[in-house]
Automatic annotation (TrEMBL):
Domain of life: Bacteria
Native source organism of the sequence: Sunxiuqinia dokdonensis
Signal peptide segment: none
Protein name: N-acetyltransferase domain-containing protein
Top-level taxonomy: Bacteria, Pseudomonadati, Bacteroidota, Bacteroidia, Marinilabiliales
InterPro entries with a match to the protein in the record: Acyl_CoA_acyltransferase, BcerS-like
PANTHER family: PROTEIN YGHO
Length: 388
C-alpha cells in the first residue's frame, strides 16, 4: 500500500474522485458539492480551522485508489473532554480492513503528534449540523448535510477499535398533517398568543442582530453541557454566506420575552433534492442558474431542522411548541414542503427526543459518533446524559 498526503491539486482531485468508485452502484448517494467540501479545509473560509489544524491522506492499494481520510483538531473541540480529543472524517474506503487500518493508523499518529489523546469520527471541522456521524440505520437518500455511507463502514470502524460515544437519531414528520396530536397544537396556539412573548423570523438584512441573538441563546442553553463548544460570530457568518442561495428566511425563528432572546429554531431546505441533478459535484454559472430554476419550480419538497435552543429558564414553558406553531403557518402557505426531518438529536438528550416525539416525529435514521482512545487501558465512557 502507498500512503499519500493531500498537498496539491492532483491529489485534491483524487480525494474527490474516490467516492464515485465507492458509490458507483448506489442510487441513494448524492455527490456533495466539491466547493463546499474544499471550503471546510480552507481557513480563510472556515473560521473554526483558523485556530486548529487539518491534514488529509489517500491510500493506494495495488496502484488503485482505495481510501481517504482527514484528521483535524481545534481548541474548541479538543478541550471539552477528559482528554484532548481530535477528529477524523471525510472517510471513504473500499471494503478492506487493511486499507481502513492504514488510514486510521495514519490519522492516529498525526493527532498524537499534535498532542491529542483520542479521536472522534466521522465528524466535521466545525459545527455538528453537517458531515457528522456514521450511518447505521436508514440507508436511504439523506437530507442535506447528513452523512451517507455503505453498511460495511460500521465494521471497518469497530474492528479497528472505535466505540459508540453517542447515537444520533433523525425523526421525520409532516407538520401540516391533520393527524398530528390535537392536544399539542392547542397548547402551541395558546403559547404562541401568550402576552409578553414575541416571535420573529430571520432576515438577511438584519443578520448581525440575529447572529448576536443566536449566540446569546446558544451560550446560555448549552454552556453547562458536555457537548458545548463556543460559537464565534464569524462561524455563523461563514455558514450564512455559504448557504445564502438555499436559506429560507421564514425557516429560522427567534423567540423573545420582554425583548430578551430566549429561543431559536433553524431549518433548511433539503438541497440534496437539487444537488442530485449535478452528479459531478461541480458548479458553474449555468449550473447555478439551473439550480435556482429548479428551486423556483419547487423541486425541493423536504426540509431539515438542524438546531433548536431554549434558555434553561424557559425549557419547560411550551416555547418549543409555539415555535412549531409559527412554522406550521409558514408551511401551510409553502405547501410544496411536505416532509420535515428533525436531525439530529443525540441519545444523551432525552428532553429533546421527547419534544420530537410529542410533535409526531417518527424515528427513521440512526448515525453514530464513535470514539477511539489512544490509551487502550483507559476506561471508555459514553457521552453523559443531559439532566434537567
Amino acid at each position: 500500500m502507498q500512503l499519500v498526503e493531500v498537498t496539491n491539486k492532483k491529489q485534491v482531485d483524487a480525494f474527490h474522485r474516490l467516492p464515485y468508485t465507492i458509490y458507483k452502484k448506489d442510487k441513494n448517494w448524492v455527490a456533495p458539492l466539491r466547493m463546499m467540501v474544499e471550503d471546510i479545509f480552507d481557513p480563510t473560509k472556515n473560521n473554526t480551522l483558523k485556530k486548529g489544524s487539518a491534514c488529509r491522506w489517500l491510500v493506494y492499494k495495488n496502484d488503485k485508489l482505495a481510501g481517504r481520510i482527514a484528521a483535524f483538531h481545534t481548541p474548541g473541540y479538543a478541550g471539552q473532554f477528559d482528554q484532548p480529543t481530535g477528529g477524523v472524517g471525510f472517510f471513504e474506503c473500499i471494503d478492506d480492513q487493511e486499507v481502513a487500518n492504514r488510514l486510521f493508523d495514519t490519522a492516529k499518529a498525526w493527532l498524537a503528534a499534535e498532542g491529542m489523546e483520542a479521536m472522534d469520527g466521522p465528524i466535521n471541522i466545525g459545527e455538528n449540523f453537517f458531515n457528522w456521524g456514521l450511518l447505521v440505520d436508514g440507508f436511504v437518500q439523506q437530507c442535506f448535510g447528513m452523512n451517507y455511507n455503505p453498511k460495511y463502514y460500521h465494521q471497518l470502524w469497530t474492528n479497528y477499535g472505535f466505540q459508540t460515544y453517542y447515537k444520533q437519531y433523525s425523526y421525520h414528520l409532516n407538520i401540516t398533517s391533520p393527524d398530528l396530536p390535537e392536544r399539542f397544537w392547542k397548547i402551541a396556539a395558546w403559547m404562541a398568543k401568550k402576552p409578553g412573548y414575541h416571535y420573529e423570523h430571520f432576515t438577511f438584512k438584519n443578520r448581525e442582530k440575529y447572529i448576536a441573538d443566536f449566540i446569546e441563546i446558544y451560550d446560555e442553553a448549552w454552556r453547562k453541557h458536555d457537548n458545548y463548544k463556543i460559537i464565534e460570530p464569524q462561524d455563523l457568518r461563514d455558514m450564512i454566506n455559504s448557504s445564502k442561495l438555499i436559506l429560507e428566511e421564514e425557516f429560522i425563528w427567534f423567540v423573545y420575552r420582554d425583548g430578551k432572546p430566549i429561543a431559536f429554531f433553524m431549518m433548511i431546505p433539503d438541497v440534496n433534492q437539487l444537488i442530485k441533478y449535478f452528479p459531478s459535484g461541480k458548479l458553474n454559472v449555468f449550473k447555478v442558474l439551473k439550480m435556482l430554476y429548479l428551486k423556483w419550480r419547487k423541486v425541493i419538497t423536504g426540509c431539515r431542522v438542524i438546531v433548536m435552543g431554549v434558555v434553561p429558564q424557559y425549557q419547560k414553558s411550551g416555547i418549543e411548541s409555539a415555535i412549531f406553531y409559527q412554522l406550521r403557518q409558514v408551511l401551510l402557505r409553502k405547501d410544496w414542503y411536505n416532509d420535515m426531518e428533525l436531525s439530529w438529536v443525540g441519545d444523551f438528550n432525552p428532553k429533546m427526543i421527547s419534544i420530537f416525539e410529542a410533535v409526531g416525529g417518527k424515528r427513521e435514521k440512526t448515525h453514530l459518533t464513535l470514539r477511539y482512545l489512544f490509551d487502550r487501558q483507559k476506561e471508555f465512557k459514553r457521552s453523559p446524559i443531559i439532566e434537567d
